[in-house]
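Can you please make up a whole protein chain along with its C-alpha cells because I've never seen that pairing?
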Amino acid sequence: MLDGELLDGQVLDGRYRPVSSYLAITPPVSVVIPAMNEAANLPYVFKTLPDWIHEVVLVDGNSTDGTIRVARELWPDVKVVEQRGKGKGDALISGFAACTGDIIVMIDADGSADGQEIVSYVSALVSGADFAKGSRFANGGGTDDMTLIRKLGNAALCSVVNAKFGARYTDLCYGYNAFWRHCLDRITLDCTGFEVETLMNIRVVKAGLKVQEIPSHEYDRIHGVSNLRAVRDGLRVLKVILREKGVPRSARRRPRAVRPALPLTVRTGLSGPMVRQGEVS
C-alpha cells in the first residue's frame, strides 16, 4: 500500500505514511544512529529498519573502517553527520539537530536493537505520549547483553532516580528511545558521554512530559567491542543524577494516564481508524 493508492475505496494522500497493512501515520520519523567503526554491524542494523521511516541520520565518530561508505551503500539517502566532538552524548545532540522529522528515534549501531520495534514506539507517541522510553525490564522486554554487575548497577541507579524525581522507571541506562521533536525544546542536553540517556530520562520527568515505557529486547553486540565501561560510566551516570535537582515530593504530579500503544490490528481506511499526528480517530 502506497500513498495515493486506494484502500477500501479511500485514497491515501501524501499526508499519510503507511506503517503496515493495518496502520498509517502522518508524522515523519527520523532515526538517529551514532556510530564509530561499526561497518561490520550496520548491515544488521539497516536490515531491520522499516522502509516507511522518513530519514536515517548517521552520526559518524571519525570512523576508520568505512562506516560511512557502508551506510551509503545500504541506505543511499542516509544523512551523514560527521561528529566534531567526542562521546555518545555529543553524537546524539549533533544527530538530533540534523533531524527534520516530527518524531525522533535513537538506536544503537552495534546490532543489539531490533528496528522492527520502532512501530511500537511510534504507536505510543501518536497515542498520546511525549517520550517513548525503551525498557529491557518491563514485561515483555529482555536483554542478552548485560552482565550481572551491570544489571545490579542499573537497578540501583534506577531506584535512585525514581525516588529523587518521582519517576516510575523499570530501566534507566538504555539507548533505544523515541520522542516528539518538540521535547527538545523542554529539555537541555549538555553531556557528552553514555550518561546522555539518563540525563534525558531525568529531564523529561522534570519537564512534566508524558512518558510511556516500551518493552524492548536487547541482543548481544554482533561484531566488535563496546566502548562502554561499567564502572567508569556508572560513576558518570551517578554524578549526573546527584547533580540534577530533585523534584520535591509536594510538587510531584501524579503521572497522567497515557493510552496504550496502538495494536497492530488497528485497521486503516473506511474499515477502521486512521491515525493522525497527535490523535487517535
Observations:
- The longest helix spans residues 148-165.
- Residues 1-13, 254-281 have pLDDT under 50 and may be disordered.
- The chain has seven helices and 13 strands.
